[in-house]
Amino acid sequence: MSTLSVRVRNPFLLRGSLEVVLEVARMDLANAEIEEIRGLLAAIPNSVRPTELQVPVAAARAALLAVRYFNQSRTRHWLREEMVNALLDLERALERHLRDAAGGG
């Protein structure tokens, strides 16, 4: 299984943000995508120290899709700025890695 290495500044903050994303986007996602995101959530350490996450490509694609759905929701505007920034950082990193993996970078 292929994985992407993603640097996360605050895993605890990212985990909370992704939990909100999953709740908002779950109706737009396939069951397999929901399970990929749940697996990613389980892999995020419960720490505020920066870390390097190894994200399976399928989970990266599912998370990116969920974040994109979430960005179109009203809930995004209610989220704390630091949580939105954590999601933006994740989105940029996943886009860059997936583009590079596809040979587009």
Structure description:
The chain has 105 residues and is mainly alpha-helical. The protein has one domain (3-103). Helices cover 61% and strands 11% of the residues. The chain has a two-stranded antiparallel sheet. α3 packs across α4. The two termini are 21 Å apart.
Provide a compact summary of the structure.
This protein is 61% helix and 11% strand. It is mostly helical.
Give the topology, please:
Elements: E1 3-8, H1 11-25, H2 31-43, E2 51-56, H3 57-71, H4 81-101
Antiparallel strand pairs: 1-2
Task: Throw out a few tags for this protein.
105 residues; 2 strands; two-stranded antiparallel sheet; globular; mainly alpha; single chain
Integer tally of domains: 1
- Residues in helices, as a percent range: 55-70%
Strand content: 5-15%
The best one-word shape is globular
| Strand/helix succession | EHHEHH
Low-confidence stretches: none
- What's the end-to-end separation, in Å? 21 Å
| Major sheet | 2 strands, antiparallel
Q: What structural category do the secondary elements indicate?
A: mainly alpha
Major beta sheet, strand line-up: 1-2
Strands, count: 2
Number of helices: 4
